[in-house]
């Protein structure tokens, strides 16, 4: 009996699968990995968080309040402790609250607080954004400088030389004690052949001075003066002023009434000036934002605001927080304005270049 055998077809067991190369490796599952997927996951998490709009209401109200302070600062009354002038003195510093509110909004994961934060950002940039850029130019006909030297300055000669090294043609100094005037005069005599001192303020010039006289700013003693300086480009009336100091007291608020009376008197004197071109140099103990200085600032423009680089804070010298030292001009074009390095005073000296 013949038995035939057929080939084993292997139907009773699975054949081994061929190996696959890297080109056949499975890819990542849809929706996993990659920046797009992470953004979608974040979107899903936020949209699924219904509390994102309810949280942070208090933070949003804080942003609105900050916006109102900056936008409506002129409406804050001075009747109670000169609160309006106080807020305007440090108005640029409202910006420090913006990063704080931003961090708190992110911590709270509040869309409401983040959106509300756009309000103070826009208002602050509208008010002070222009000061963040350098507007200084080149050229000009006259360089002026001013410095409150501090009555207790231990180095009057060094302070005077430092201001003179700015290249100024005209220098105004305030808070000159009678016992140290000679030290300032000796330090500046070689470079400034013309000068005058009235009370506690003085003016030094490379060009002839005439019609020099004190200006009554209702203080009882002389802290302001005026002189005509004859430059190669014509005559300029130069005023030097040191307005009364202001203080912040718990029981009295912002004590600025005497300063306010003095600035009104100074503004009246400038308004009656016979020369068209006028420059005011000095320590006004107030910023350009302070409404109390309107008697002067309504007539003149700040060299720092028109042609400066940054805020130009001048006081206190150890950590400048406000520009209370000013160079203001009338019918004169500012070209550049800057702050000098610190001296032995508690104020920083400032300088400007103008075109006559």
Structure description:
By secondary structure, the protein is an alpha+beta fold. It has eleven helices and 14 strands. The strands form three sheets. The chain has a six-stranded mixed beta sheet. A six-stranded mixed beta sheet has the order 5-6-7-10-12-11. Strands 8-9 form a two-stranded antiparallel ribbon. Strand 1 (142-148), helix 7 and strand 2 form a beta-alpha-beta unit. Helix 2 packs antiparallel against helix 4 (97-108) and helix 7 (156-164) packs parallel to helix 8. Mean pLDDT is 89; it is low at 1-14.
SSE layout:
Blueprint: H1 35-47, H2 57-71, H3 83-89, H4 97-108, H5 111-116, H6 118-128, E1 142-148, H7 156-164, E2 170-174, H8 181-188, E3 194-198, E4 201-205, E5 209-214, E6 224-231, E7 234-242, E8 247-249, E9 253-255, H9 257-271, E10 278-283, H10 294-297, E11 301-302, H11 303-307, E12 325-330, E13 333-339, E14 350-355
Parallel strand pairs: 1-2, 7-10
Antiparallel strand pairs: 1-14, 2-4, 3-4, 5-6, 6-7, 8-9, 10-12, 11-12, 13-14
Helix pairs in contact: 2-4, 2-6, 7-8
In short:
With 356 residues, the protein is an alpha+beta fold. 29% of the residues lie in helices and 22% in strands. Strand 8 (247-249) and strand 9 (253-255) form a beta hairpin.
Essential attributes:
single chain, alpha+beta, disordered N terminus
């Amino acid at each position: 009996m013949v038995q035939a055998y057929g080939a084993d077809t292997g139907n009773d067991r699975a054949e081994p699968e061929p190996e696959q190369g890297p080109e056949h490796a499975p890819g990542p599952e849809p929706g996993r990995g990659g920046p797009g997927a992470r953004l979608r996951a974040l979107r899903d998490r936020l949209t699924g968080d219904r509390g994102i709009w309810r949280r942070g209401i208090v933070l949003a109200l804080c942003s609105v309040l900050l916006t109102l302070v900056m936008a409506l600062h002129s409406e804050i009354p001075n009747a109670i402790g000169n609160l309006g002038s106080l807020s305007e003195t440090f108005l640029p510093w409202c910006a420090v609250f913006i990063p704080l509110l931003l961090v708190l909004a992110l911590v709270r994961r509040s869309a409401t607080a983040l959106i509300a934060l756009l309000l103070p950002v826009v208002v602050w940039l509208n008010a002070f954004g222009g000061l963040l850029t350098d507007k200084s130019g080149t050229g000009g006909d006259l360089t002026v400088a001013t410095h409150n030297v501090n009555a207790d300055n231990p180095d009057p000669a060094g302070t005077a030389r430092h201001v003179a090294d700015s290249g100024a043609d005209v220098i105004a100094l305030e808070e000159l004690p009678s016992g140290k005037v000679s030290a300032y005069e000796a330090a500046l005599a070689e470079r400034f052949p013309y000068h005058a001192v009235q009370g506690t303020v003085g003016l030094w010039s490379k060009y002839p001075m005439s019609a020099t006289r004190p200006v009554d700013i209702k203080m009882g003693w002389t802290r302001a003066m005026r002189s005509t300086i004859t430059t190669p480009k014509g005559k300029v009336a130069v005023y030097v002023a040191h307005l009364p100091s202001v203080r912040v007291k718990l029981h009295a608020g912002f004590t600025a009434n005497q300063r306010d009376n003095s600035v009104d008197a100074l503004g009246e004197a400038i308004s009656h000036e016979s020369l068209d071109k006028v420059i005011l140099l000095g320590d006004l103990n107030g910023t350009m934002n302070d409404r109390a200085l309107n008697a002067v600032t309504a007539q003149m423009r700040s060299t720092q605001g028109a042609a400066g680089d940054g805020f130009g804070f001048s006081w206190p010298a150890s950590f400048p927080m406000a520009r209370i030292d000013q160079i203001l001009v009338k019918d004169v074009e500012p070209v550049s304005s800057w702050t000098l390095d610190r001296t032995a005073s508690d104020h920083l000296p400032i300088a400007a270049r103008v075109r006559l």
